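Posted in: Structural Biology > Protein-Ligand Complexes

Title: Requesting predicted complex, 26Q in pocket

I'd be grateful if someone could produce the 3D structure tokens for the following input. Sequence and ligand are given below.
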Amino acid sequence: MTELLQELKDLDVAGKDIKTLYTEISALCMKYIAPKKREGRRAYYLSIEYLMGRMFHNNLLELGVLEEAEKILSAKGVNVAGFEEIEDAALGNGGLGRLAACFLDSAAGCAYPLDGYGIRYKYGLFKQKFVNGEQVESADDWLTWGDPWSVKREKEKRVVHFADMDVTAVPYDMPIVGKSVNTLRLFDAEGSEQAKKICDYLYPADDTEEGKLLRIRQEYFLSAAAIGELVEKYAQKHGRNFNKFSEYHSIQLNDTHAVMSVAEFIRLLTKEYGITFSRALEFAKHTFNYTNHTILPEALECWNYALMEKILPDIAAVFKTIQVYATREWKAKGCTQEEIAAMSVLHGNCLSMANAAVYVGEKVNGVAAIHSELVKRNLFPVAYKYYPDKFQNVTNGITQRRWLMLCNRELSALLDKKLTPAWREDMARLETLDTGDTAEFIAVKEIKKKQLADYVLRHDGVKLLDGAIVYAQVKRLHEYKRQLMTAFAILRIYYDLKEGKLPDFRPSVFLFGAKAASGYFRAKGIIKYLNEIARLVNNDEQTNKLLQVVFVQNYNVSYAEKIVAGTDVSLQVSTAGFEASGTGNMKFMLNGAVTCGTMDGANIEIVEHAGKENNYIFGASVEEIERLKDTYDPNAILDSTPELKRVADTLVDGTFSDGGKGYFKELYDSLTVGAHWHKPDHYFIFRDLPEYVDALIKVNRDYGDTAFAKKQMENTAHAAFFSSDRAIADYARKIWHIEKA
Ligand code: 26Q
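-- Reply #1 --
Done. Output follows.
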């Protein structure tokens, strides 16, 4: 890379702004990145989301020139901190999209042959700001920064047919750099105005028929563009005999959003290559795999058959025929009518994308040990009965390159000093960290907290309390994640502080970051409520040196990089059984935060590795929640616990105003009355709240001892398992059967 560094030295920077420099430096780097692909079996990741974040620092790191390049540019008078303003590529929403990005990073990093396919949305996930404490959304026009890391492949465009229009899918390739260079191929839609709309936004609202059709179009557009290409390339090489297709391809469906690719594959083989349906189905069964990311019933995609038929008659027909073949197979196995109904791809007029994925998928996996058990036991029990070998677990992971080496260079340098840089290639070496020696670790944490505070001040205009414990809950806003429970816990602490009941309380900052889906009324209400709590608490002279609440705006990958490094306590408090895995929990752990959380998702494995004694675990287990379901009475708890009632009542007693929007009353009713689709407090906030408050106070008491810093270090020391390098190796071994180059 000496030539690249020489080119950087020769670069004329005079009078150029950050955007121009970004474009030119990225272009220089791209000259040195060439896809290195070998023939043979490859895996393909199909995902509707990719939450890549900034590629600039990551790619320079992978090219091995990051620090040297920064030195060269600084010497020329460039303010390299300016590159922190580069817009994120936020073509995703949350964990599922970030997981896709981490997996691509790890596959390239470990030289596994894995390419990604997705959609090149014109606008990423909306930008968020708060006006009067309420979320205001605006378009995320990420392309104003250009897209210097992608190459448009005009020649490889292909046409995707719908009954009412043709759309041209134009690929843009983003190299994924590591030991090998893989490709993320994102398709843009060209053609009529209506055609172009397909790639405008991620998850367009689907509460109207038009919205649903647009979602179906997106899913098919991705599926048809990707599968069309793979099938065509195969045929060019191997001819019209598809016997060997599955020897060369393993296709991973990231949740159900690209399940139409199964139908497209069968459609192509039967219509264009003269293969029989049953053989095409057999080939599909050896090619596709499905990862489930949620057991929430409302997130399981069902498409109305007639709706799909309207714009994709052949695809709808393939699903119908799959149902016919499946039913034959199930009858031969002796399944009952109920069992067949439970596994059906088409029942009534509903096409179940999950059931299709389970039936056709060679392997079906959950994303953490407990989640994979629930997938078998609660979500697909019948399929598990008849196809037990399909079901696998692959616990999620995160890339240590972005989530430690890039976001926490200070801790990385300390690990280099203590362990030699060998840990960078071999994360297992973290286990040998001497966690009794906390002084330098504490010093690093202080630096990262200071940097976080500077960032929050710049972005949100809020000055964080000096020397405070930082507790953070950053993730999509969802009721099951229970940001509302944290709100109640904070109020409980606030009232206790005012009444002098917490004499030795150490200054604490509660940091939130989350976007609420645009049509999700309650999520928006929770944001407003937390912002109102922040206003009350932060302006109370009696407590505001001790307790601070900050909800940062526009939480995204780049913000997360600051927060995970500068946090002491990671809040992971979902109702047991609902968080499939969580991956933020792993990022915090790696950066030396303790987890204050429930026995849910990957938290369970985190405490298995890092030790229960080094974390703060509370709340009902999955089994207890299951037992509680029928008898749970939140109102009885409120009536017998005045401290809880007092905080819950702030939703309706005039303590806070939601500006007449009705948010708070609706939240209150969801907890005390329920709604036509659920019982009161169906995420069991009042069951877990008292234990949660105790856990938070215990953390507060423990903090400041070297024993607490040791706990934090123990988390870093046992984080190797949560590297996505390990997760990718698991997929490679259990599911894809691919080898490192
Ligand atoms: C479904 C139907 C209709 C419209 C939208 C959706 C939809 C869209 C996105 C459903 C779910 C998602 C995203 C889910 C997600 O991000 N899940 C998270 O995946 C992570 C990676 O496995 C896990 O760590 C998290 O626990 C899980 O919540």
